[in-house]
Design a protein that fits this description.
The protein is of the alpha/beta class and about 800 residues long. It has 2 domains: about 375 residues, Rossmann fold, CATH 3.40.50; about 250 residues, Rossmann fold, CATH 3.40.50.2000. The chain is about 50% helix and about 15% strand. The chain has 32 helices and 23 strands. Keywords: Carbohydrate metabolism, Glycosyltransferase, Pyridoxal phosphate, Transferase. It is an enzyme of class 2 (transferase). It comes from Gottschalkia purinilytica. Its EC number is 2.4.1.1.
Length: about 800
């Protein structure tokens, strides 16, 4: 009924009047947004219920995807697009004198994530719904998300991201499905009928309350679910007049302790309290999720001995690894299943994706802290470790070094990545080179022990969000050329290769890019009062700020270009617009220094008239999905310059690629597969290879002072960080200077500098040939189909989860 414009207007007006008691003229933009969102949400209810009924009726295996992050951006636009309601909604609102874009702009980005992990999770959920794969996401309902980034005097300042301040019209609270999660206390062991029974006593009780959000498939009637859990006190109604002052204070402390669990993503863990809170969050998520899954499974008549045949639990990175001992706890303590059978069920139900080789991201928990917070779970982890080490002893007798290296518990720490590998039936990396590093370096002993577990699933992005929604003019151009089959079958984009020599197509592609640059330029002018040359090369690096991602290398090239132009202002080079965006973890001081450096360089360059506006540098504040949807379509160059071997995959590189940007990158992560897809002529490669980097690490690195002393450009740039000539203050960036020279540049910034600069020069020369550049853009778009998350989740469904697609009829 909403697909009829007149009916749409009628129902929207009725919603405004019945909910807010005002006329359309009196309604605020927020009123209109809430009314429109609730109207669309109610419209999908029937399909939401019908989808779950179809899944149950077909009795196929279902996937539960656990991740601490899901970054969906702003739901309204995506939901309208996938429902096929975007056009009728816009037309109906136009008739009422309402701008749909203004309503979409008022919506907050969903604050359930931080970076690539969350964006990937959101892409997977959209693809699984669009393909009809029975899947349910599970995460925490963070009250404040991560943080909203403010830039003050060039520095990052974190403020609360109160994304729920106006509520979330897309979620449905399911109080009746709440479950209890237990922390602390002690475990009493009883002998019951010749069997040991474990009774958890004197624990702190917390209520996990589910809230369900719809995940809408693209025009296929499928509506999957993202379930989020909020932590709430077990007792909510107390008569404080009957309590003593001490009892009131104790309850207030308990309430604060409980609510802090679902308050903010990634609490600072540089102190003991922060570490405890992170561990609480992780257990809270998996315990709440598994309890609701098992409750539903049993309600539908499932037998726990067959649980693994009907339920696939996927843990996205190490954060949800406690799903393994928690499932064991439920099976043994609550379902009265013997250890061996419980272990069989668990290790045939749970699969694991590894996202990193960085040591700091491969989580470890102190045994004493873990045992105090999760006494029963620790007992199970200890038993898993004992049995695993015994198995290792049988395979490798007296090889103590190997056994120690592979143990789950070692040196008073619990290694979560080891637990994830031991307790799952599948371990996958997220790009071919990343998986090879896992198998041959980081987890070589585990691969040697159980090679059948390891496999690769290269990441992907949902092209419907990152092309169809974010870049409608390019989408229309593609559809005019090859038809709309690519929307449901992204591999069809390959047909565009026949247009790479078509001058008319390329001229239209140029106009589309210019249009998107204008949109971004307007935003930058409005927010930062900086004018952008639309004919400049828009060169973008937007991602989490981290030393291994090497924003510093990008800045050093910009400074080199700046000094070159200062020496020769009339140099004939294309003007360049360098755009950065990304957040630094609150406790990561070097990353914060990098943000300050970018902003300081921006300040110096943007006001220098000598270089005749040939360089502009902008740091986009509070990088997020909705902002990314403006950046990717406008970009010419995608900076993917991490130290080779450090980036597991990357998905930003794919979003740039599908929008016609050319990659400037190291052969790292999925960059390698992008280069292989488009060919050397359509990719700017530089720097050390994975093997070269790993060889340097094995042999103690290189001497960064040698580069400083032999390359005058490097010396000039590094000296300017501390001598006051550029920034007017001595030692301003001493920390970065020391890191690169006295700490020997562990991410090879100086080692790769010369090759990076030469490749940037090559890029500029290539850009001068307009039609050659547009040919490269076309080839990148045409070959982007293989990097759709549709392809990725099909591989997960077939090779890991063993689930079938379910067609939901109208």
């Amino acid at each position: 009924m909403l697909k009829d414009k007149e009916k749409f207007k009628e129902m929207f007006l009725d919603r405004i009047q019945t909910i807010y008691g005002v006329t359309i003229e009196e309604a605020s933009v927020t009123d209109k947004y809430m009314a429109l969102s609730s109207l669309i949400r109610d419209y999908i209810y029937r399909n939401w219920v019908h989808t779950h009924r179809e899944y149950d009726k077909k009795a196929e295996r279902q996937v539960y995807y656990f991740s601490v992050e899901f970054l969906k951006g702003k739901p309204l636009g995506n939901n309208l697009l996938n429902l096929g309601l975007k056009d009728v909604c816009k037309e109906a609102l136009d008739d009422l004198g309402i701008d749909l874009e203004s309503i979409e702009n008022i919506e907050n980005d969903v604050g359930l994530g931080n970076g690539g992990l969350g964006r990937l999770g959101a892409c997977f959920l959209e693809s699984m719904a669009s393909l009809g794969i029975p899947c349910h996401g599970c995460t925490i309902r963070y009250k404040y998300g991560l943080f909203k980034q403010k830039i003050i005097d060039g520095y990052q300042v974190e403020v609360l991201d109160n994304w729920l301040r106006n509520g979330n019209p897309w979620e449905v609270r399911k109080t009746d499905k709440s479950v209890e999660v237990k922390f602390k206390g002690k475990v009493r062991v009883n002998n019951k009928n010749g069997k040991m029974a474990f009774i958890h006593e004197d624990y702190e009780s917390i209520l996990a309350v589910p809230n369900d959000m719809p995940i809408i498939g693209y025009r296929n009637n499928t509506v999957n679910t993202l379930r989020t859990f909020s932590a709430e006190p077990k007792r909510t109604e107390l008569d404080f007049t009957l309590l003593s002052r001490e009892e009131v204070q104790k309850y207030i402390e308990y309430k604060h302790s409980v609510e802090s669990i679902s308050e903010i993503l990634y609490p600072d863990d540089h102190n003991y309290e922060g570490k405890v809170l992170r561990l609480k969050q992780q257990y809270f998520l998996v315990s709440a999720g598994l309890q609701t899954i098992i409750r539903r499974f049993k309600k539908k008549g499932g037998m726990m001995k067959n649980f693994h045949e009907k339920v696939a639990i996927h843990i996205n990175d190490t954060h949800p690894t406690l799903a393994i001992p928690e499932l064991m706890r439920i099976l043994i303590d609550e379902e009265d299943i013997e250890w061996d059978e419980a272990w069989y069920i668990t290790t045939n139900a749970i699969s694991y994706t590894n996202h990193t080789i960085l040591p700091e991201a491969l989580e470890k928990w102190n045994v004493d802290m873990f045992k105090g917070l999760l006494p029963r779970i620790y007992m199970i982890v200890h038993e898993i470790n004992e049995r695993f080490c015994k198995e290792l002893w049988n395979r490798y007798p007296e090889d103590w070094d190997r056994i120690r290296n592979m143990a789950i518990i070692n040196n008073n720490y619990i290694n979560m990545a080891h637990l994830a590998v031991v307790g799952s039936y599948s371990v996958n990396g997220v790009a071919k080179v990343h998986t090879d590093i896992l198998k041959n370096q980081v987890m070589k002993n585990f691969y040697d022990f159980s090679p059948y577990k390891f496999n690769n699933k290269t990441n992907g992005i949902t092209h419907r969000t990152w092309l169809l929604k974010a870049n409608p003019k390019l989408s229309n151009l593609i559809t005019d050329a090859i038809g709309d089959k690519w929307i449901k079958e992204p591999s069809s984009l390959i047909k565009l290769t026949s247009y790479s020599q078509d001058s008319s197509f390329k001229e239209n592609l140029f106009k589309v890019k210019k249009h998107n640059k204008q949109i971004l330029a307007d935003l930058i002018k409005r927010e930062y009062n900086i004018n952008i040359d639309l004919d400049s090369i828009v060169d973008v690096q937007v991602k989490r700020i981290h030393e291994y991602k090497r924003q510093i290398l990008n800045v050093f090239n910009i400074l080199n270009m700046y000094y070159t132009l200062k020496d020769n202002p009339d140099l004939d080079i294309p003007s360049r617009t360098f755009i950065f965006g990304g957040k630094a973890a609150p406790g990561y001081y070097m990353a914060k220094e990098i943000i300050k450096l970018i902003n300081s360089v921006s300040y110096v360059i943007n006001k220098d008239k000598i270089i005749k506006d040939k360089l502009k540098v902008i740091f986009l504040e509070n990088y997020r999905v909705s902002l990314a949807e403006r950046v990717f379509p406008a970009s010419d160059v995608s900076e993917q310059i991490s130290t080779a071997s450090k980036e597991a995959s990357g998905t930003g590189n794919m979003k740039f690629m599908i929008n016609g940007s050319i990659t400037m990158g190291t052969l790292d992560g999925a960059n390698i597969e992008i280069r292989d897809a488009v060919g050397d002529d359509n990719f700017f490669n530089f720097g050390l290879t994975v093997d070269e980097v790993l060889s340097y690490y094995r042999n103690g690195g290189y001497n960064s002072w040698d580069v400083y002393n032999s390359d005058y450009r490097v010396k000039r740039i590094l000296d300017s960080l501390i001598d006051g000539t550029l920034f007017g203050e001595k030692d301003k960036f001493r920390m970065i200077y020391e890191s690169l020279l006295n700490n020997n540049d562990q991410y090879f910034v100086l080692k790769d500098f010369d090759d990076y600069v030469k490749t940037q020069v090559k890029l500029q020369e290539r850009y001068k040939n307009k039609y050659k550049w547009l040919e490269m853009c076309t080839e990148n778009i045409a070959n982007a189909g293989k990097f759709s998350s549709d392809r990725t989740v099909k591989e997960y469904a077939k090779h890991i989860w063993k689930v079938k697609e379910v067609q939901v009829e109208k």
